[in-house]
Design goal:
mainly beta, 3 domains, three-stranded antiparallel beta sheet, four-stranded mixed beta sheet, rod-shaped, Immunoglobulin-like, 17 strands, 2% helix, single chain, 250 residues
């Protein structure tokens, strides 16, 4: 009997997988998209690439915000996997006007609504500003102030939204200005009515026309026919503010 022996050997080669790193670079101010830069080292070149969006290039160009995954395969068939989240390249930042838009004594003095008072310092691609105005139905008088509320809405192309609110108060507490005619001296038989002795005039900050009334106080003189009439003129606006002046007739 013959004893036979056989000896053989095998070499096991283990290839290292590629190493990857990914960064993204925003395209520029107010731009939401970015370029994705993939760096590959190790393994055995050449490499092939397959991105989750279907791209087969090493890098991605001008891609919108979102998550992107890539499979890198080297010449030995070894694979590496990596993911990047593209975000934060732009945001909507606004500077609102003062919440208190001021107090006015007349509605005609309130400035018209102006979207330009909202400053937009950052945005995504483009933006629009809209505004709506409402009020509480007040009369604008001291007992019932008119409160105007203005809401400004800024929306950019990425769908980001910011709002600003401003309130304006209207309270007419200013009395009409009454101007009396000059003092006059007339004969005792002459008419003392305003048509003969003069009429006061009045102007108001809000009401274009205000009614004028007068009241007389008569004081006797030295002789029976002599007397002094102190005439007080009054003008009242629609909010009940009253202005007066007085002059004498003798």
């Amino acid at each position: 009997m013959t004893d036979c022996n056989a000896i053989d050997s095998a070499v096991l080669i283990v290839y290292n997988a590629p190493n990857t790193s990914i960064v993204f670079n925003c395209l520029g101010p107010n731009q939401p998209n970015a370029d994705v830069d993939l760096t590959v080292s190790g393994g055995q070149s050449p490499y092939t690439y397959l991105w989750s969006n279907g791209a087969i290039t090493q890098d991605l160009t001008n891609v919108p915000p979102g998550q992107y995954s890539v499979i890198v395969t080297d010449a030995n068939g070894c694979m590496a996997f990596d993911t990047v989240q593209v975000e934060g390249c732009c945001d909507l930042v606004v500077v609102c006007p003062p919440a208190d838009g001021g107090t006015y004594t007349c509605i005609t003095n309130v400035p018209v609504i102006d979207n330009g008072i909202v400053q937009v310092t950052q945005f995504c691609e483009s933006f629009t500003t809209t505004s709506v105005e409402s009020n509480n139905g007040g009369t604008g008088c001291a007992a019932s102030p008119l409160i105007i509320t203005r809401v400004f809405t800024v929306t950019d192309n990425a769908g980001n939204v910011q709002t600003c609110t401003q309130t304006i108060t209207v309270v007419d507490n200013v009395a009409p200005i009454v101007t009396c005619p000059g003092n006059v001296t007339i004969q005792c038989t002459a008419s003392t009515l305003p048509a003969n002795t003069g009429t006061a005039t009045a102007t108001d900050n809000c009401d274009p026309v205000v009614g004028i009334t007068f009241n007389d106080v008569i004081a006797g003189g030295i002789c029976p026919q002599e007397r002094t009439i102190t005439r007080t003129w009054s003008a009242t606006d629609d909010c009940g503010n009253t202005g007066t002046c007085a002059n004498d007739r003798s």
